[in-house]
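Much of our argument rests on the idea that a fold can be written as discrete symbols. This step matters because it turns folding into a mapping between discrete strings. The record that follows shows the chain in one-letter code together with its fold in token form.
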Amino acid sequence: MSHKTITFSVSRSNIDEAGQERNRRRQEFSLEVNDRMTVLDALEVIRRDQDQSLMYRHSCHHGSCGTCGMIINGERKLACLTAAAALEVDTIELQPLRTMNPLGDLAVDPTPLFADYPEDATYIRRSEVHAEGRKPFEVDHWERFEDCIECGLCVSSCPVTESFIGPAALAAHNRELINRPERRTELLEAVNTERGAWPCERALNCSRVCPTGVYPAKHIAELRKKIEQDGMAPAAEPGEKRAR
């Protein structure tokens, strides 16, 4: 197993008693990593051995919880799935996700991500994997969680930063519509607004960074099509330019 020394350039900040971010700065940490260490592994070692005040969010360590999303060398990624040595650089720059509420250093409060999610959304759906496989007699079919792990990478990468509910919420609306078609009119009306499906400029950043293959841009396109199919007048013309 090979080893190399990497400098981690970490964006740091403090939050005052009023909840305002102060003293945004960079701090460098040098660490020897091996081929198997992820960026999250490296942060754990840095916090343990070099600076116990370092703040970041994490939980599952295997790409299921979405809490360790951050900007790694300019790209939105999950730290737990990003191998440090595989980046093939001597310095790795780490920043918190933008559009979220800063909590300090790399940690953010994801509350804005959920502000426009559909109410009473279902998070479990009938599984399409092994649909014909053997099942216990007690169940009629397999179920699974939705693909979205609510990491916020899509929202942070979206170039439309003003007056937009964002790709995660729009994908959630379309999934809810698929799961519960009886809510079709309600859900389409909720996204047929100037903040809804129409500000999207089809940059496709959201689909590129999604770690679980949700492809939010596809869901936004489907919502627009369904709005038109139902004869609703678009709240804004597709492609209309908006302030950023």
About this structure: Residues 201 and 239 are 6 Å apart (CA to CA).
